[in-house]
Write a structure and sequence with these properties.
This protein is about 10% helix and about 40% strand. By secondary structure, it is mostly beta strands.
Length: about 190
Amino acid sequence: MESWNSARTAGQVALDVNYSASHWIHLPWNYSTENRNYISAANRLAYGSTGLYNNVPNPFQYLFTQVPGKPAPIINDPNSTYNFAIVPQIHLLRPFPEFPGSFSGFPEFVANSDYQSVQVQFEKRLAYGLSAEGNYTFSKFMDYSDAGGNAWIGNLGFIGAPQNVTNLRAEKSVSANYVPQRLAFAQFMKRR
């Protein structure tokens, strides 16, 4: 986190200007809870729609059925795709080929965020113990870690899928929790 400030006083006026910035890494990426067994963009481009479903030899068959020259099967699942000598290529290209289809899990901690702001605070002392104060913040908050959640406006839920789950940097945008400007005033009287 970076911070810089400058304070000036002139008579009964105080002005304080600050710059603040932070860069966070290893934040949870919410979409990763949806499906962990996706086909990478590189494989989708390399094989194309038809190539992904070409039949290829099944390297996991010996785990499901007896194959000559291999040990006894250890998995008894008569409905599994892996019971057959050939399987569609798509099953073997997944990050976890031993699990056909999709599955979800806890979020992966692979997202980043960046926050930068300029904060101005001022105070004016008036007559008879009256005082007026104010704060103004101008900021920018970018990330690719959230899926539309915002405590101020409720949870928007998951809106759309990422362009490419193997390139999360392409998802970087203004955060759902971004508040670009904030202005606050207060006036009070000091007791003597």
